[in-house]
TrEMBL record, chain A:
Classification via Gene3D superfamilies: MetI-like
Transmembrane segments: 71-89, 110-131, 162-182, 216-239, 269-291
CDD domains in the record: TM_PBP2
Span of domain ABC transmembrane type-1: 67-290
Compartments in which it is found: Cell membrane
Keywords attached to this entry: Cell membrane, Membrane, Transmembrane, Transmembrane helix, Transport
Coiled-coil ranges (or none): none
Gene Ontology CC terms, in alphabetical order: plasma membrane
Origin superkingdom: Bacteria
UniProt entry tagged with the keyword Transmembrane helix: yes
Protein name (Swiss-Prot/TrEMBL): Sugar ABC transporter permease
Membrane-topology annotation of the record: Multi-pass membrane protein
UniProtKB/TrEMBL annotation, chain B:
Family: Belongs to the bacterial solute-binding protein 1 family.
Lineage: Bacteria, Bacillati, Actinomycetota, Actinomycetes, Micromonosporales
Keyword Signal: yes
InterPro entries named in the record: Bact_solute-bd_prot1 (IPR050490), Chitin_NgcE (IPR022386), SBP (IPR006059)
UniProt-annotated location(s): Cell envelope
Region (Disordered): 30-53
PANTHER family per the UniProt record, alphabetical: ARABINOSE-BINDING PROTEIN-RELATED, SN-GLYCEROL-3-PHOSPHATE-BINDING PERIPLASMIC PROTEIN UGPB
Main location: other
Protein name per UniProt: Carbohydrate ABC transporter, N-acetylglucosamine/diacetylchitobiose-binding protein
Keywords: Signal, Transport
GO terms for cellular component: cell envelope
Domain of life: Bacteria
Length: 302, 472
């Protein structure tokens, strides 16, 4: 048995490592290299320019504007998504009104669970297209609903005061279903008798959530936090499709800045790589910080 | 025994992990490329009157077509015509919607195709290609005899502006094979039903807007999410007032070109459609297709667009809508250009990469495209005008395109164009675009609008990493 072990490990380990090396690690390394050049992307000529791209980036107002938007996303997307996710998951798993023994969800839990998960099944591109129509200023769902109330709705994606928030709302909408399922699954693992005990002690649902559920779910919440923080630093697809960063750069994000610099309005691959490198370190630091900040003593139940 | 083997193995795995990225770097380095000089004299045959570029009869030709609004059938027809003359040349045809992403690696490693239709949203920034010396000089093509128009050089068969718009610092590098007019579109049926006439002067235009609004229709709408569409009428109005130098100064990034008197007068004038709320409410939230659809549904009367609008709106245009193009209204009697003057320019760019294996074949392919036969076939197949003069004669065209032909005829030699959007893509696509969005949604006035455009132009002018071009 032992003799066959290493060939087996090698057979399973080398191909993925090789693929990972070629398609993940090496592009990363190359991005670092390219970020120190003035490469324009369509010839083999590139001059080494040291840290010029980073100096330029430091002075680039448009990049800072995009960073600011990502910072807002970072502050709001995880909080909103996790809060909504926890709320819905709680309602689905233990929100049922008493009367009967035991802890149950609200009526129609199965149907809700299905509906919440819908956005997760759709591709991001479809979500963007659908919501673009929902936000249509004249024929869209929202403004059509406001009209009978005598309200002329804003032009949503066409107004710098609302465009960014509209995209944020879609990001939350698109993500929340997954976390409802994730938190729901984790809640199933919490022993029922704990809940029955606190119910007998007369704890309200809010107290139960705050004192029992969240502490016991903390590991899952932590994972959710990191995922969402990383998603908040991206946001590229939705923004590109729904607003393309506009109006007047009000919904711009770093990923879109990078894309436009390399592929759309310019071909500055060197500069775009520098933006990518900055994004890489931002994401890395955010992930590490999120891990650190949310580290708590683990509560175990047996 | 066991431990040694494990050690060896561990070392092996570590070495493997270390070596993999290195191998990846070597084999797939994005920047590594062939060093061939791009000298194609070796690949050329003897030059004769029949064969002015010295095409080798058996040299293969690699053609990449943008598969967009025009499809790819027209290109296949051109390729078939090329094959008639060079039956031994193997033609590789491919079509994609992502020109930039598909072809970038081939440009980098020095094996680009021979003919590229560099068009669409995934177009490679032409300024970027030019500044990297990636394009072959097409000058030879202009001086070659036309394939089937006797006694004329290719240069003399083209509509005005075709050479200009493809030239960078005097070198003709990009061939645009179609011809587009930019103007203001309206439904002749709607106007006839209501007894409205398209206004020739600015005052008439404002008066008409009042009438239209009173009739319960929005006078204007525009591509709210691509507000640069509205920069076209603003600049056109300014050029008609102040003459061709207005455009030339903008193209050459002259200081304060955007704040010239003509631009100021024009921006002031256009501000009125914002102030008087002549624009369909909610327009800033619409993209180009959504706004054009509102226009087709009769919710708005006027819209700024190029002659591709008829094709783009084919599916939603009601029968009998009869769209037509018109020039921007004249500001007054002191206008340097007549009312009929319209912005006409060649579109649908084609290039031959400098490092193409068969540059001569690429040039000959272009000569085929620009032959009367090739041009007529193109016009018929895609319902668009060709860059070749007279190619639409006798071809049945849809109403919108018919009006474009008429407008271009009427405009004649007073037609105009600008090219800063080709030289500095970012200036139009991002900076002027954002400024137009603010201006036409009423958040800023005309002075701030031009300041914002000028700020963008100054930013481009000061960017040392961008190559600058001068327009003749």
């Amino acid at each position: 048995m032992r003799h066959g072990k290493y060939p087996l490990i090698i057979t399973f380990l080398v191909p993925p490592l090789l693929l990972y090396g070629v398609f993940v690690v090496s592009p990363y390394l190359q991005a670092f290299q390219i970020s120190t050049t003035d490469w324009l992307g369509y010839s083999a000529d590139a001059n080494f320019v040291g840290l010029d791209n980073f100096v330029r980036l430091w002075r680039d107002d448009y990049v800072w504007n995009a960073v600011k938007n990502n910072a807002i996303l970072l502050a709001l997307l995880p909080v909103l998504t996790i809060a909504l996710g926890l709320f819905f998951a709680t309602m689905l798993n233990m929100g049922g009104r008493g009367g009967r023994a035991g802890v149950t969800g609200v009526r129609g839990t199965a149907a809700y669970r299905l509906v919440y998960f819908f956005p997760q099944v759709l591709s991001v591109v479809i979500i963007a297209v659908v919501w673009q129509q929902v936000y249509h200023p004249n024929a869209g769902l929202i403004n059509a609903a406001l009209k009978p109330l005598g309200i002329d709705g804003p032009s949503w994606l066409g107004d710098p005061r609302t465009a960014f928030w509209c995209v944020l709302a879609v990001m939350v909408w698109a993500n929340v279903g997954f976390y409802v399922v994730l938190f729901g699954a984790a809640m199933q693992a919490i022993p029922r008798d704990i809940y029955e005990a606190v119910l007998l002690d007369g704890a309200s649902r809010l107290v139960t959530l705050r004192r029992i559920t969240i502490p016991l779910l903390w590991d899952t919440v932590q994972v959710a936090w990191i995922y969402l923080a990383i998603a908040a630093l991206d946001g590229f697809i939705l923004v590109q499709l729904m607003t393309n960063g506009g109006p007047n750069f009000s919904s711009d994000v770093i990923g879109l800045r990078m894309y436009n610099t390399a592929f759309a309005s310019e071909t500055k691959f060197g500069y775009a790589s520098a933006i990518g490198v900055v994004m890489f370190f931002l994401t890395l630091s955010v992930a590490v910080l999120a891990l650190r900040a949310s580290r708590r003593e683990r509560i175990e139940f047996s | 025994m066991n431990s040694t083997r494990r050690d060896i193995l561990r070392r092996g795995v570590v070495a493997g992990v270390m070596a993999t990225p290195a191998a990846g770097l070597l084999s797939s380095c994005a920047m590594g490329g062939g060093d061939d000089s791009g000298d194609d004299t070796a690949s050329r045959g003897e030059k004769t009157a029949e064969n002015p570029f010295g095409v080798k009869a058996d040299a293969p030709l690699d053609v990449v077509i943008f598969n967009g609004g025009y499809g790819e059938e027209y290109a296949k027809a051109h390729e078939a015509m090329y094959s008639e003359k060079y039956p031994n040349a193997k033609i590789t045809h491919s079509a994609t919607q992502e020109i930039s992403k598909t072809l970038q690696p081939r440009f980098v490693d020095g094996s680009p195709p021979d003919v590229v239709n560099n068009s669409g949203a995934g177009q490679i920034d032409p300024g970027g290609l030019v500044s990297q010396g990636a394009l072959a000089d097409l000058g030879e093509l202009l001086d070659a005899p036309s394939l089937d128009i006797p006694g004329k050089k290719v240069r003399d068969t083209l509509l005005p502006g075709v050479v200009d718009v493809g030239s960078y610092d005097g070198k003709f590098l990009v061939l645009n094979i179609s011809y587009t007019a930019y103007g203001i579109w309206y439904s002749t049926k709607l106007f006839a039903d209501r007894g409205w006439a398209y206004p020739k002067t600015w005052d008439d235009h404002i008066a008409l807007c009042r009438t239209i609004k009173a009739a319960g229709i929005a006078p204007w709408t525009y591509a709210g999410k691509h507000p640069r569409y509205m920069s076209w009428p603003v600049i056109s109005t300014a050029i008609k007032l102040g003459g061709l130098d207005v455009a030339k100064n903008i193209d050459n990034l002259e200081p304060n070109a955007w704040k010239s008197d003509a631009m100021k007068t024009s921006a002031d004038a256009w501000h009125q459609i914002v102030k008087d709320q002549f624009i369909l409410p909610g327009t800033p939230g619409l993209d180009h297709v959504q706004s054009q659809t509102e226009w087709c549904r009769g919710k708005a009367a006027l819209i700024s667009c190029g002659s591709w609008i008829e094709n783009e709106q084919k599916a939603v245009t009601p029968a009998g809508f009869d769209m037509a193009i018109a020039p921007t209204p004249s500001l007054g009697a002191s206008d340097k250009l007549p009312f009929e003057a319209i912005r006409g320019t060649a579109g649908e760019p084609f290039i031959v990469p400098a490092k193409a294996k068969n540059v001569a074949g690429g040039l000959e392919y272009f000569r085929t495209v620009l032959s009367m036969r090739g041009a007529k076939d193109f016009t018929q197949k895609v319902s668009a005008l060709s860059a070749v003069s007279g190619a639409a004669d006798g071809v049945a065209l849809p109403p919108g395109l018919t009006s474009v032909v008429k407008a271009l005829d009427a405009s004649g030699t007073s037609g105009f164009n600008w090219v800063y959007n080709n030289y500095y893509r970012k200036l139009e696509r991002e900076l002027v675009d954002a400024a137009c969005g603010e201006f036409f949604s009423g958040r800023i006035g005309p002075t701030e609008f031009l300041d914002l455009c000028q700020k963008g132009a100054d930013m481009i002018a000061q960017d040392s990493s961008l190559k600058k071009y001068k327009r003749a």
